[in-house]
Structures are given as C-alpha cells and as structure tokens.
Amino acid sequence: MSYVPTLKKLYTEQVAPELVKSRGYKNKHQVPKITKVVVNTGIDAEADKNQIADVQRDLAQITGQKPVLTKSKKAISNFKLRQGQIVGCCVTLRSNSMWEFLYRLLAVALPSIRDFRGVSPKLDGQGNYNLGITDHSIFPEINLEAVKKHMGLDITIVTTAGSDDEGRELLRLLGMPFRRSESTKTNTAA
Fold first, then answer.
1. How far apart are the C-alpha atoms of 105 and 62, rounded to whole Å?
2. What whole-number distance in Å separates Cα of residue 52 and Cα of residue 111?
3. Per-residue pLDDT reduced to its tens digit, 29-51
4. 38, 116, 156, 183: which has the fewest Cβ within 10 Å?
C-alpha cells in the first residue's frame, strides 16, 4: 500500500463529497482540484554566488525539491540588470510533494505568523490563488541561525475551478484560513 498525504486524504474523503453536495456536480471529474503549487522568490540582481546558493538551499528545504534558477530575458540599465542574469528561484510542486507542502503551509507555517488574522480571500478570476509571504523563516525547516538574509515567497495554487467562488470554496474546505471580508464583519456585528 502506498503512502497517501494527509491533505490528499482529506480532499478525497471529505472535501470532494462536500463540493459535490453543495455544487450539485453530476460527474466526479467536474469537482475542482489542485493541479500544482508554484513557489517563487526573487533574488537581488547584484547578489553574489553565496547568496544565490543560500536562497536555493532555503527554497529546497522548504519545498523538498531542487529549485530552478530564473534568469532575466532582457537587459534593463536602470535596474543594473543584464540579459541572462539570475533574478530568482522557482519550484513547481505536483502530486504528493504538492499535498505535503500545502499541509505544512496550512497547518504549521501560516498559524505561526505573529498576529495572524487570515489571508486575503481574493482569487485571480480563474479559480487560482496567489499568496505572498514576507518572511520565509515561518517554515519549520528553516534553521534561523543559518539565515543571513530573509526573503519573501510568492506561492501560487493552481486549481481546475472554473470560477473564483469554486476555487475559494475548495481552498476553504481544505483549511485555507481566509480573512473575513468587511461586509461579513458588519453583517455579523449588527
């Protein structure tokens, strides 16, 4: 018997049936699912080789996968940027590694943020979710003594949802701690 990540098990046993019940899907293939998670970070254009190696190491520890370096496509003199210069690191997670990363993000990393009040409920218009994290040290895999420079992360969760409402409901059922909107706060306070 193969290993099934905790969050994937939650999706198949509880989230998918709940979505079928609430949305009235006729076919199991209509149920929205997460296809991939992309974790991206930028690197200072004037960074030295050691800093690039540190960013790669930290991103590999967070995601469990070797990151790919991204390079600039064209030169921009105002930013002191040459064509082909390293400007970032990117990891695309799929399958079990995607589910494991999401579980650590939702259950460990986000709740460890001081004064955390939830994440924005806005999606991109096509059912995908983008999340910006200002400090990568919220992940337990990062050794704080080894961190020389804190970096931010962009996390994109790509779903098969056809609308923002479907995507939001999928992520909410998986445990995404969405912040309540202002209109909801005023309605409940009255």
1. 10
2. 28
3. 888 999 999 999 887 767 677 78
4. 183
Between CA 89 and CA 41 the distance in angstroms is 5
The span from the CA of 154 to the CA of 41, in Å, is 6
Amino acid at 116: F
State the pTM of this model: 0.83
Cβ-proximal residues to 136 (8 Å cutoff; 6+ apart), any chain: 41, 58, 59, 62, 142, 150, 151, 152, 153
Q: How many Cβ atoms from other residues are within 10 Å of residue 102's Cβ?
A: 24
Distance CA 116, CA 59 (A): 23
Cα separation, 148 vs 51, in Å, equals 8
CATH architecture of 32-176: 2-Layer Sandwich (3.30)
Count Cα atoms within 13 angstroms, Cβ side, for 15: 22
Kindly tell me the sign of the dihedral angle through the C-alpha atoms of 162, 168, 169, 174.
positive
Q: How far apart are CA 134 and CA 154, in angstroms?
A: 9
Q: Are 152 and 130 in contact (CB under 8 A)?
A: no
